[in-house]
Amino acid sequence: MRIAAVFLAAIFWLTATTAQEQRTPTVNQCRADREAWLLETYGRGTGPGAQHVSLHTLFDWDTEMGVCGLGVDEEQRAAYQNAQARFEIEVSRRRRDFIERHGLTQQFYKEDAAGER
Fold it and tell me: What is the CA radius of gyration of the chain?
């Protein structure tokens, strides 16, 4: 009986978590998130910039901005695309730094020249 209760509680928690993750933000939430995230990562002009934000978070922000610009707040689509571009530039910078840090630059160029894309 106790195991069944724990199992049902786990199912309820997973269902609630999934529902929260799949919620569609409102226009106000989209605009507030965009402004807060851009300010947090680029707007102050001092400090670490986007370096303190994890890749997972950048991907989540990018995804939400896509949802916002393509259905929730199409009036400001360009602003959401701009935010996405900034997050994607940061991800690209980190990939480049990873390649350089691990001495993979020449291998990257060699494979690209060979058509491995």
Answer: 20
The DSSP string of 57-117 is HHHHHHHHHHHIIIII-GGGHHHHHHHHHHHHHHHHHHHHHHHHHTT-HHHHHHHHHTT--
- Whether the CB-CB separation of 53 and 40 falls below 8 Å is answered with yes
pLDDT at 18: 47
How many Å apart are CA 7 and CA 117, to the nearest integer?
45
Q: Which residue has the tokens 């209760």?
A: 5
Give the whole-angstrom CA distance, residue 38 versus residue 68. Answer: 15
Distance CA 27, CA 73 (A): 6
With 0.85 as the threshold, say if the pTM is over it: no
Q: Which of 19, 62, 33 is nearest to 11 (CA)?
A: 19
In the chain, % of residues over pLDDT 70: 75
Indicate the residue type of 79: A
Q: Which amino acid is at 27?
A: V
